[in-house]
Amino acid sequence: MAKSILVSNTLPKEALGLVPKEFTVDLHNTDHPLPKAELVARLKGKDGLICHIISAIDDEVLGASPNLKVVANVAVGYNNIDVAAARRRGIIVTNTPDVLTETTADFAWTLLMAAARRTVEADHYARSGEWKRWQWDLLWGMDVHGKTLGILGFGRIGRAVARRAGGFAMRVLYHDAVRADASLERELRATHVDQDTLLRESDFVTVHTPLLPETRHLIDAGALGKMKKTAILVNAARGPIVDEAALARALREGWIAGAGLDVFEEEPEIHPALLPLKNVVVAPHIASASHDTRLAMASLAVRNCVAVLEGKPPITPVP
Ligand code: GLV
């Protein structure tokens, strides 16, 4: 029987073109999340759902259609989905790992470099008309090369971030509940340490853990207090991993030197105490937003959804 899919937000036509002709697609073609009641109503009778992280997929949503077989998230993180409830209902959840690893790692580095070398301040200054002459002590920043990089969370993205550190001759520390193979540690020249050692010894701390109950506010006032006064924090993972109020205080009071943030606790809100601070670089959750990668993510989500509805194994089910 022909299958029907709800696509709860914008998806590129190249990816939608991968849906077999005989399937029907109900596309909510905007970036606004469907209100829950509408999401539930439009999901009725559907076999598959393709969604973005802005849709909260809880047990009630999952129960909206007795036919629902698959929820394909267009993201690697899937904290927007109640995976345990999906499992109970026999619904497969998929995500989009791998295709965004390198692009996200590139962007973590973009934030790191921008915060270290004050690129955003420099841009504003150069455009402002204030730049009248060469100035010896203008916009001094931090060196990156030769420093210590601390990576919290050593999955695909954390490892890709580590790989790039080789080009900057950095010492790489990492912390993860699961230690990497010795051969990978050698290849990436990365040393496994406990979290406190990482916080105390790193010049740059970058967060690459999933958002889980145990990683919520992993970087809180206590953690920030352990970091070097010259250190820079980068978060391109999930906002609630960092306690934003504590971070704003740390940045204001000089506990640490700077931060680069792509994600926030209450997106699209940014904690008001962060906004006036010059030593924080902010971006609107765009770490995976390159043309190629966004297309690859959308295509993978569609392929996952179609595979399940055609009775095949999903390509990238969530673990
Ligand atoms: C983006 O935030 C993702 O999880 O892919």
| Quaternary organization | single chain
CATH hierarchy, class of the largest domain = Alpha Beta
Taking all Cα atoms into account, the compactness measure Rg is 21 Å
Q: What is the helical fraction, as a range of percent?
A: 25-40%
How many structural domains in the coordinates? 2
Strand/helix succession: EHEHEHEHEHHEHEHEHEHEHEEH
Form type: globular
Number of helices: 12
Q: For the report, how would you describe the main beta sheet? A: 7 strands, parallel
CATH-defined topology of the largest domain: Rossmann fold
Beta-strand portion reads 5-15%
Q: Tell me the CATH superfamily of the largest domain.
A: NAD(P)-binding Rossmann-like Domain
Spans where pLDDT lies below 50 across 5 or more residues: none
Distance between the termini: 29 Å
Look at the helices and sheets and give the structural class: alpha/beta
Strand line-up of the largest beta sheet: 8-7-6-9-10-11-12
Briefly say what this structure is.
By secondary structure, the chain is α/β, with parallel strands linked by helices. The protein is 34% helix and 15% strand.
Reconstruct the topology from this structure.
Blueprint: E1 4-7, H1 13-16, E2 24-27, H2 36-43, E3 48-51, H3 59-62, E4 70-73, H4 83-88, E5 92-94, H5 101-117, H6 119-128, E6 148-152, H7 156-165, E7 171-175, H8 182-188, E8 190-192, H9 195-201, E9 204-207, H10 221-226, E10 232-235, H11 244-252, E11 258-261, E12 280-282, H12 291-309
Parallel strand pairs: 1-2, 1-3, 3-4, 4-5, 6-7, 6-9, 7-8, 9-10, 10-11, 11-12
Glyoxylic acid (GLV) is lined by residues 53, 75-77, 100, 288.
